[in-house]
Amino acid sequence: MEVFGCGKYVGVVFLFLLWSCALFANAQTGFLSIDCGGGNRIDPETHITWVSDDDFIHNVGEKADSYYSYMVKFYFRRLRVFPKPINKACYVLPLAPNVPHILRLSFVSANSTGYRDFNYSVETQDLLYMETVVFDNCLVCRSGNTLLSADSVLHICLIRTSDCADPSISAIELRRLKPGMYDTAKPGIMLHTDKRCDMGAEDVTRYPQDQFDRMWEPCKSLVTGTKSINVPKSISVSGTRNFPPSKVMQTAVVSNTSGSNNMYFSLGQSRSKNALAVLYFAELNSTGKRSFSVGINNVILTKEIDLAGNVPALGLPFQYDGTTEAIVNLQSKIPGVSPIINALEIHALFYTHPRTSSDDVKALRELGKAFSLNSWTSDPCFGLPWEGIICSNINNTVRISQINLSGRNLQGPIPSSLGQLTELVSMSLNNNEFNGIFPNLTSLSKLEKFFSGNKHLCPTKRKCRNHPRSVVAIALGVAGIVIVTAILVGIIIYRFKLRSPCTQPSPLDYLMVNVANSSKCRAFTLEEMRTATQNFTHKIGHGSFGTVFLGELQEGKQIAVKVLSVFNKHGIEQFSNEVDLLSRINHKKLVSFLGYCNESRDLMLVYEYMSGGSLSDNLYGAEPPKYSQLDWKTRLQIALDAAQGLEYLHVGCTPKIIHRDVKTSNILLDSNLNGKLADFGLSRVTGNDETSQINTTIKGTPGYLDPMYYKTHMLTDKSDVYSFGVVLFELICGRKPIDTKVSAEKILLTEWVTSYAGVDKDDANIQEMVDKRLGNRYNMKSIAHLTNLAWRCIANEPSGRPTISEVVAEIKESVKFEEEYCHVPDQVSLTLTSSFSSSL
Predict the structure, then answer these.
(1) Residue 499: helix, strand or coil by DSSP?
(2) Measured between alpha carbons, how far is 188 from 98 in angstroms, rounded to an integer?
(3) 758-791 pLDDT tens trace
(4) Looking at the domain assignment, is residue 493 inside a domain?
(5) Does 112 share its domain with 38?
(6) 752 phi, psi to nearest 5 deg
(7) What is the DSSP string of 84-117?
(8) How high is the pLDDT of residue 25?
């Protein structure tokens, strides 16, 4: 693997020597600590040597201060950011082959929005792992992994997932372990550490107490009904699996109930279906003896563990199904003597993704080396394909199918190694400065080649001798033939249509649609969609775009497939807009876009399946789901979810995005009633300042449409705020925006609420309009607060409406009021119970 233009071995040897010198000087064998965006220094707490990342990323990206520059840990104060147009940037680190390593990555946000999200990948020749970093889940996002590879080079890559967030990283820590440790980690299997617990401790234990700088956190609260014990003596761990530090084994928990023979605790659910737990035991009473069995979910793992004061520590590993909660039971064999546990680890197991064919990788690397394509690092197809590369899955093997290097000002002869790309079907080399003779690619008989604009490149040796410009002539000749053929075909088709008066044109007629950002999202085939939806048999909805079908991909993920209706006049525009937009944005409060189908006359959009249906279905459905009676707290949470999704579009994206069709039918719910914003077919991109506006054709849904937008045709982000205000009133009142079954003056929800909401209305007025299905199970202060917010959102003048960030903050206040409230029914129940007791 080249290191930004350097040969593989030169770059790796240089990094290895650099690393070795630092380690030797500080006696931290096998440690590599990189302060991304920072400099060389020694940690005053652990005395671990930290180095700058300059030699590992070769000054790609920009150094910056983190938003939390006040943090105690110096390596959280700085970071390296990768702004546009960088889409993938890789750190190149030396790795000891066939030896396990712990890898810790730390991510700290560079700003306060909390909506920066991107992917990172860990890549070797036999391991590919990727994960998403979302900053609104954590102040400092840290990832701990254990890996083993036969490779000598490790790539840590930051991958852009949207135009709204620049990837960034604060610290990289690599710790070499001893051979045989964590033997579940193998080439192709990554261990992600969920927990590493020192059961009886009060503080975190790490280096130098742990020679491998693992971080053991206090977890005695994990096992209830226990007490901590500890001893000052050293505990022998020389023969213990994974060598837990003696300091960790000096503490433990036992039952605090005299005579108790059982101890139960939960490992919780893992991030993966496959999980690994390691339990550590040691007797801390020098004269004591314990014997107990260990079981999980009523399955005995080992019938008897015998511990005594002179017995070394013991590590017990077991794998289990991480999708269910795992309950561990320690049952004593000696009456009155409690079981004991000193420490535990919980890891999620992730299996590698398929790598690109090694022959293809070798050929591309020679090509990249020949033309100094420095961005071609790590795996060509994983995470984000190299620029100019298109990959395909052929017979369960990832292969290179297309190369486009047009207009790059590349110079020199083309390497013959391209002949190894046996699945290559198209290669465009137009408008460069290539010279010499195009290599004879006998293995690529079906290859379509384009290399016009390279005046010194000859397609064959003979053509090169005959005329230096023959390539251009051939290209022009071929182009002329193609044009003439196209004209003839068009005439034939036209005459055929004239001869076929019985043929009726379809309401919508189109050929293949040009999809923007197609390389950033998955293109499904029509056959894949037919298989996934069982030939489109399970219809789950119908919207303006077309019919929605339920499906399931081969990997087991349920999907919702929106099929464009032939009667939708604006369908192609909506399709193109949604693919272009959703391939560039990603947020947990937006329905995930999985890809599209653009084959022949079939256009489809593929999303994650939201099993809870739409908010509209749950409020008004003729056959509402079992949880349709949404309580007030749930409605508030759904409102907050949708508002945060909208805030991401308005604030987190650059430039900002206006949804233009916010309504309850475009807020979808999952099985846990978490809300996500959906349907971006009408969305528009605008500027970043608050006054940014677009003069555009009126589009939206009656009842939700901003009246000022309707009058002036000027679209702003406050138009979304107006529509969201209508949604808030729906949640409060349980009424549709337009109800034709009532008198004329009450048809519009926004007019009907004027009798109850407004600056001069008190709680009694507001309570009259509250959805009767809520009963009195709500805090009136919360209802009133949200009503006043909704009233501000639907102000006639956009300047009088709050920003979406203000909306989010106000909804959080309503949630706070509701959480502080004790519902009336519970109070009544308590009063009756007390009265009844006193009368006995």
Answers:
(1) helix
(2) 12
(3) 877 788 889 999 999 888 888 999 999 999 999 9
(4) no
(5) yes
(6) -65, -40
(7) TT--EEEEEEE--TTS-EEEEEEEE-SSSS---E
(8) 40
In degrees, to the nearest 5, what angle opens at C-alpha 383 toward C-alphas 378 and 388?
Answer: 75
Residues 574, 723, single domain; the answer is no
Backbone CA torsion sign across 458, 464, 470, 474: negative
DSSP-derived 3-state class of residue 834: helix
CA gap 427, 575 in Å, rounded: 28
**H-helix segments, 309-348:** none
- In the three-class reduction of DSSP (H, G, I as helix; E, B as strand; rest coil), residue 615 is classed as helix
**492, part of any domain:** no
Distances (CA, A) of 590 to 31, 73, 561, 648, 676: 40, 34, 16, 9, 5
Does 226 lie in the same domain as 111? no
Q: What is the pLDDT of residues 664-709, one digit of tens each?
A: 999 999 888 999 999 887 888 885 554 456 656 677 888 899 989 8
| Max Cα distance, the chain (Å) | 116
Paired with 402 in beta bridges are 390, 426
For 548, residues 6+ apart whose C-beta sits below 8 A from its C-beta are 539, 540, 541, 542, 560, 561, 562, 563
Task: Mark which of 351, 372, 403 sits at the end of a domain.
Answer: 351
Whether residues 583 and 668 share a domain: the answer is: no
Say if residue 168 is in the same domain as residue 206: no
CATH number for 533: 3.30.200.20
**Taking residues 118-147, what's their average pLDDT?**
86
| H/E segment holding residue 364 | helix 358-370
- CATH at residue 93: 2.60.120.430
What are the φ/ψ torsions at residue 349 (nearest 5 degrees)? Answer: -100, 125
**Residues 202 and 157 occupy one common structural domain:** no
Residues 6 or more apart whose Cβ sits within 8 Å of residue 195? 217, 219, 344, 345, 346
What is the enclosing helix (H) or strand (E) of 836? helix 824-839
Cβ within 8 Å of residue 128, ≥6 positions away: 121, 122, 352, 353, 354, 355, 379, 382
* Domain end position, chosen among 169, 187, 205: 187
Closest listed residue to residue 198, CA positions, set 337, 313, 100? 313
- The count of structural domains within the chain is 5
d(C-alpha 692, C-alpha 249), whole Å:
62
Taking each continuous run of H as one helix and of E as one strand, the counts in the chain are 17, 44
Q: pLDDT digit string (tens) for 473-519?
A: 555 555 555 555 555 555 444 444 433 333 333 334 444 455 655 55
pLDDT of residue 519: 58
In this structure, what CATH number is given to the domain that contains residue 385?
Answer: 3.80.10.10
Both tokens assigned to 303: 């019938």
192 contacts 145 by C-beta, under 8 angstroms: yes
For 645, other C-beta atoms within 10 Å of its C-beta total 23
Report the catalytic residues. Answer: 661
Q: What is the CATH number of the domain that holds 320?
A: 2.60.120
- Domain range for 393: 358-468
| Terminal-residue alpha carbon distance, the chain | 84
For residue 595, the 8-state DSSP code is E
- Partners of 610 in the beta sheet? none
Return the closest-CA partner of residue 216 out of 250, 266, 174. 250
The token duo for 49 is: 């040597």
- By residue count, the chain amounts to 840
In a domain, 474, yes or no: no
Cβ–Cβ under 8 Å, residues 142 and 106: yes
Whether residue 758 is found in the same domain as residue 787 = yes
702 shares a domain with 809: yes
484 inside domain: no
Are 11 and 57 in contact by the 8 Å Cβ rule? The answer is: no
Amino acid at 550: L
